[in-house]
Amino acid sequence: MKAAARERKPRHSNGRAAAAAAKNLSKVEPGRHLAVVRLFPACLLALLICLCVVKFFSSLSSQSQRIGTRSRMVSSWEGSASTNVPRIPVAPLIMGRVDEDISTRSPELGVVIVFVLAVSRVVTFLVETCKGLGFCHWKPLSYPMLILKGKQGSVFKNENFKNGTDSENKSRSERQVAISTENDPPPGKEESLTKSPQTAVSESEVPKPKSKISCDDKSKDEGFPYARPIVCHLSGDVRVSPATSSVTLTMPLQQGEAAARRIRPYARRDDFLLPLVREVAITSAASEGDAPSCNVSHGVPAVIFSIGGYTGNFFHDMADVLVPLYLTTFHFKGKVQLFVANYKQWWIQKYKPVLRRLSHRAVVDFDSDGDVHCFDHVIVGLVRDRDLILGQHPTRNPKGYTMVDFTRFLRHAYGLRRDKPMVLGETSGKKPRMLIISRRRTRKLLNLRQVAAMARELGFEVVVSEAGVGGGSGGVKRFASAVNSCDVLVGVHGAGLTNQAFLPRGGVVVQIVPWGRMEWMATNFYGAPAAAMELRYVEYHVAAEESSLARRYPREHAVFRDPMAIHGQGWKALADIVMTQDVKLNLRRFRPTLLRVLDLLQD
What residues contact residue 107 under an 8 Å CB cut-off, 6+ apart? Predict the structure, then answer.
C-alpha cells in the first residue's frame, strides 16, 4: 500500500516533495528532529543577545536631550563635560519625530545600532529556516524590531524592514516613536540646556537686537560750510507712530536711559528750514507696556525723511533728497519701508521711478497715517555728503558709493540706455549733439539764438530746451532722455545744470558763470559734481559788460567794485542782486570755449 502510494503521481505540478511534506507534516525523520533540537537553543541565545543589546541601546537613548525645533537628539554623556546639566525628575514619555541622523552625533551609538541590526538579521534567518522546516509558525522579534525601526529610522532612512506585512511597512512612511524625556528640563526652561558653550535658541523665539540709539549730530565737517543734518539709528523694539510724530524705542532700565530729542529729518540744516520741516520726536520706553501698542509689524527696516524744505527746485530735490536717500537706502536692495513727512503727492509721483527702485513697498504718508508700526531698525533722517557729492567715509558711506554709481542708478531708473558720448570723427558724417538749457525768469541767456547758430557753424547739432517743463514723472523722464541723447550740456549757472546727472559718462558740461564772484558756488554746486560723475567740465566766466547788472547799477556800485561785499550781506542780498542778472554772451569771446569742447570730444 505504501509502495503504491509512493509510485502514484500527484495531480498537480507542484512536485512530489511538496505533496508528501503536506501529507506527512506531523512525521519527522530522526535527522531532521536532531537539527531542530540543535537549532532552538541557538535561536533562543541569539534572541537573548539581541534583547540585551536593545535594552542597552534604550538606556542610552533615554538620556538624550531634545534640543531646538528640529527635535535633535544629543546624548547627555556626550555633552555632560561642557554643560554640567543637573539631573532632574523623570518626565512622562512624549511623542516626537526623529528627523536627524543620530549616528552622526555619536559614532559609538552607530556601531551599536549596526551590531543590533546584524544580530537581528541572523536571528531572522534562523527563524525563517525554522519556519521552512515547518516547526516555527510564530513571529519572534516583532516587538524588538519595531523598537529598532523607531530608534534608528533616521539612520537608515531609505531602508524598509520586513517584520510585518508589506502593507504595514508602506503605511508607516513617517514613524512616530516614544522618546524618553528622563533628563528633559521643565517647560519653558529648554534654552538652559546646551551641548556646547553656545546657547541653543529656538527658531520660533529669535531674540530681538539689543536696544540702541546712535545719532550722527556733528554740525560741521572740515571744508563743509553748511551745518550737517542729524541722523539717528534706532535698533531693537522700535515703534513708529505717525499720528503723534514720534519714534519710540523700548529700552529696559538695565540698558540705560535714552535721552529724548526732536529732530527735523531733512538733509540740510539752516534757520530758514525751521517752519518748513516737520519735527519727529525720538523717545524711549522702559517696557513694552509703556510704548504705543503695535498694530502693524514689518520685517524690513524703516527710513523716515521729509520732502519739505526747498524741494520743488530740481537742484534741492537731488541734493537734499534723492542723493541722500540713495546713500541711506540703496544697500537695502529695495527691502525697506519709506515714511515721508511733509508729504506731497505730486512730488512722490514726479520721482516715482526713483522711489520704486529704492523701495519695493508703497511709501507711507507720515502726515496722515494712523497706525503704529513696529520695526527692528529705524533710521530717522537721511545721510548726506556735500551737494551732489558722495565721498568716502567709514560711517556715512561704508559701501563706498560714488556719484558714478548714482548716475548709473538714475539711468536704470529712467530707462536711459546711452552710457558714453560719441567720439568726434569716429563715425563719418555724425555730429556731436549739444543741448542748451533755456531759462524764463532769471539768468536768461539773452542771445541764445546767436549762440546756437555759432555752435551749429562749428559742427554741433544743437537742441534748445527748458528744464523742468511738464509735470509728473513723465516730464522728468522726457528731459532726462533729451539730455542723455546729447554729448554736451550748456547752461547758465542754475538748477537746470543738475540735469548733467543724465549725461552719458564722459560727456561735457559747459557752465556759464554769471558776474559777481560766483566761482565758489559754480565749482562746488556743479563743477566738482561733474568731475565726480566722470564728466568733462568747462567754465565760462561772464565779464561785467556781458551782464545785465551793467545796465542796472553804475560802475561804482559794490557789485562791480567789491562783489564779495554783497556775499557778506547774506543770501537774501546775493539772491536779490547777483542771482537775478541775465547774460548776453560776447560771441567772439565765447567761441574758444566751444572749440575746447570739440577738442575734448576727440579723446
Answer: none
Give the residue from 400, 432, 460 where a domain finishes.
Answer: 400
Helix/strand/coil for 107 = helix
From CA 200, how far away is CA 52, in angstroms rounded?
34
Q: What is the DSSP letter of 434?
A: E
Q: What are the CA-CA distances from residue 211 to residues 83, 274, 290, 298 (Å)? A: 29, 30, 15, 17
- Residue 601 burial by Cβ neighbours in a 10 Å radius (0-12, 13-18, 19+): buried
- What pTM does this model have? 0.66
Question: What is the residue range of 510's domain?
Answer: 410-598
Q: What are residue 466's phi and psi, to 5 degrees? A: -100, 130
Q: Which residue has the cell 541764445?
A: 448
Helix, strand, or coil (residue 375): strand
- Rounded Cα distance between 326 and 397, Å, is 11
The pLDDT tens digits for 13-49 are 444 444 444 444 444 455 555 555 566 666 677 777 7
- Locus of grid cell 508607516: 172
Specify the residue for cell string 541723447.
485
Query: Cell triple for residue 111?
Result: 556601531
In terms of domains, do 364 and 269 share one? yes
E strand map for 183-279: 212-216, 231-241, 246-250, 261-263
pLDDT digits (tens, 9 = 90+) for 220-270: 665 566 677 899 999 999 999 999 999 999 987 655 555 688 999 999 988
CA distance 43 to 471: 94
CATH code (residue 578): 3.40.50
Whether 342 and 444 map to the same domain: the answer is no
Question: Phi first, then psi: what are they for 490, rounded to 5°?
Answer: -125, 135
Q: Are residues 476 and 372 in the same domain?
A: no
73: closest CA among 48, 55, 100?
Answer: 100
How high is the pLDDT of residue 182?
A: 37
| Domain limit, last residue, from 344, 367, 400 | 400
Number of domains composing the chain: 2
Axis crossing angle, helix 30-61 with helix 142-152, rounded to the nearest 10: 40
Locate 10 and state its grid cell. 500527484
Dmax over Cα atoms in the chain, in whole Å?
Answer: 156
- The rounded distance, in Å, linking the Cα atoms of 521 and 176 is 77
Render pLDDT for 271-309 as a digit per residue (tens, 0 to 9).
778 789 999 999 999 888 889 999 999 999 999 999 999
Nearest-10 Cα torsion for 149, 151, 152, 158:
50
Residues 390, 259: one domain?
yes
- Asked if residue 535 lies in contact with residue 509, where contact means CB atoms within 8 angstroms, the answer is yes
Angle at 309 between CA 307 and CA 312, to 5 degrees: 70
Task: Give me the residues paired with residue 379 across strands.
Answer: 233, 303
Task: Give the C-alpha separation, 366 to 372, whole Å.
Answer: 11
Q: Is residue 8 part of a domain?
A: no
Residue pair 467/443 in contact (Cβ under 8 Å)? The answer is no
Q: What is the pLDDT of residue 39?
A: 64
Q: What gap in Å lies between CA 358 and CA 376, rounded to an integer? A: 19
Q: Using DSSP bridges, classify how beta strands 433-438 and 461-466 pair: parallel, antiparallel or unpaired.
A: parallel
Segments of 24-91 assigned E as strands: 64-67, 72-75
